[in-house]
């Protein structure tokens, strides 16, 4: 038997397959029902824009990927926006996704670019989907005009997952990593962990790494030890 201090532990690389981000791969639940419905009605978004809010791992990027594919949208990170490049990003009558809009806060060039982009999108009839982890008032925006623009955007919030969604997400995360947990592993984790999809993602990675390093199967003791370590951090 090997343990954490054993010289026989393997060097581990995270070789998980990229997560499947199609509509058929999305897990509908009460926590995301409103957001999923709104994505299907982008022609009815007030002023052609929508802000999708939710914590890490709640499914914002998955929903954005679904809409990107279905609307033929381009995707950009808010923190990397620059004023000089905005004009080329906003196609007449097109569609755009701006991920992590809250991360533009405190970056003068990114804030100015996001303000310019929002105005230009309205003029050119571009549908605009933004994602963020918190409400606009909590972003810490410095540019008053941008703050007022963002506060006027219709928002939809991803709610806290229930146990059924958390279990389904863990099943998917384990499948993405080609892990075959022993019976009772996932149910046991759901009973003990916070209802946090970001934690679920980190936990799947930690369990995968531990199983590979130790050469052990994904058993309840291994999974619960990984959860305890993450919870203590």
Give the helices and strands, then pairings.
Layout: H1 33-39, E1 49-53, H2 60-71, E2 74-77, H3 83-89, E3 95-99, H4 108-124, E4 127-132, H5 144-151, E5 155-157, H6 163-176, H7 185-192, H8 197-214, H9 220-232
Parallel strand pairs: 1-4, 1-5, 2-3, 3-4
Got a strand count?
A: 5
Tell me about the largest β-sheet: 5 strands, parallel
Indicate the radius of gyration in whole angstroms: 20 Å
Describe the global form.
elongated
Residue runs with pLDDT of under 50 for 5 or more positions = 1-15
Strand content: 5-15%
**Strand line-up across the major sheet:** 2-3-4-1-5
Average pLDDT value?
A: 88
Q: Give the end-to-end Cα distance, rounded to a whole number of Å.
A: 26 Å
Structure description:
This protein is an alpha/beta fold and 233 residues long. The chain is 45% helix and 10% strand. The chain contains nine helices and five strands; from the N terminus they run αβαβαβαβαβαααα. A five-stranded parallel sheet has the order 2-3-4-1-5, with helices on both faces. The chain is elongated.
Features:
5-stranded parallel sheet, 233 residues, alpha/beta
What's this entry about, in short?
This protein is an alpha/beta fold and 233 residues long. 45% of the residues lie in helices and 10% in strands.
């Amino acid at each position: 038997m090997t343990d954490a201090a054993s010289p026989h532990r393997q060097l581990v690389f995270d070789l998980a397959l990229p997560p499947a981000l199609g509509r058929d791969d999305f897990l509908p639940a009460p926590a995301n029902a409103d957001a999923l419905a709104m994505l299907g009605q982008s022609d009815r978004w007030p002023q052609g824009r929508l802000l999708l809010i939710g914590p890490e791992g709640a499914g914002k990027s998955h929903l954005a990927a679904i809409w990107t594919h279905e609307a033929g949208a381009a995707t950009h990170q808010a923190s990397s926006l620059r004023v000089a490049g905005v004009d080329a990003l906003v196609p007449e009558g097109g569609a755009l996704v701006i991920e992590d809009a809250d991360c533009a806060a405190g970056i003068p060039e990114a804030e100015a670019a996001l303000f310019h982009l929002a105005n230009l999108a309205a003029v050119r009839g571009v549908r605009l989907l933004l994602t963020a982890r918190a409400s606009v008032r909590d972003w810490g925006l410095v540019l008053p005009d941008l703050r007022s623009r963002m506060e006027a955007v219709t928002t939809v919030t991803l709610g806290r997952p229930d146990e059924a969604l958390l279990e389904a997400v863990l099943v998917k995360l384990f499948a993405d990593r080609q892990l075959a947990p022993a019976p009772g592993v996932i149910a046991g984790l759901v009973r003990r962990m916070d209802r946090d999809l970001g934690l679920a993602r980190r936990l799947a990675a930690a369990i995968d790494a531990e199983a590979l390093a130790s050469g052990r199967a994904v058993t309840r003791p291994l999974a619960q030890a990984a959860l305890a370590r993450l919870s203590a951090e």
